[in-house]
Design brief:
Blueprint lengths: L28 E3 L2 E6 L14 H17 L4 E11 L9 E11 L2 E10 L5 E13 L7
């Protein structure tokens, strides 16, 4: 298992940056071929009363996918993203996030992200995104 932090240039990231005072401050880690994190949405993350805003969920999924690359030393930007919401997520619901590489070709990587209810493992949202790798680094990018 790797360290939950990547490199200091992302300290201000809204999702994972420890220096962002209004951020989610999620800690991502690699476990084999899966990037993982836990997230429990709070009242400040809601859209409709009591329900987590879909944009917050997509942000968390975008980062679990991006961190699959980032924690391997690669720097990449989301080129295209798609999400499917499967169930509303009440505020206070603990979630498990998972990101996996689906395909890689040249400087592009397709990743898949899942948000699962920690309680029963049910998928509440799934995403697939294409990332443009601008710096592959030296840490295991295919």
């Amino acid at each position: 298992m790797s360290e939950p932090r990547g490199r200091p240039e992302a300290d201000g990231c809204f999702v994972c940056g420890p220096a962002n005072p209004i951020g989610l401050r999620l800690a991502f880690r690699l476990e084999g071929e899966v990037c993982r994190a836990e997230f429990t949405p709070q009242a400040s993350h809601q859209g409709y009363d009591g329900v987590t805003h879909g944009g917050i969920l997509f942000s968390a999924l975008d980062d679990v996918m991006a961190n699959w690359l980032f924690l391997r030393g690669a720097r990449a930007y989301t080129a295209r993203g798609e999400i499917r919401y499967r169930a509303p997520v009440p505020v206070g619901t603990p979630l498990r996030l998972e990101g996996r590489l689906k395909a890689a070709k040249g400087r592009f990587a397709t990743l898949r992200g899942l948000a699962l209810r920690a309680e029963d493992g049910a998928a509440v949202a799934e995403a697939e995104s294409v990332f443009h790798v601008i710096d592959p680094g030296r840490g295991g990018w295919p």
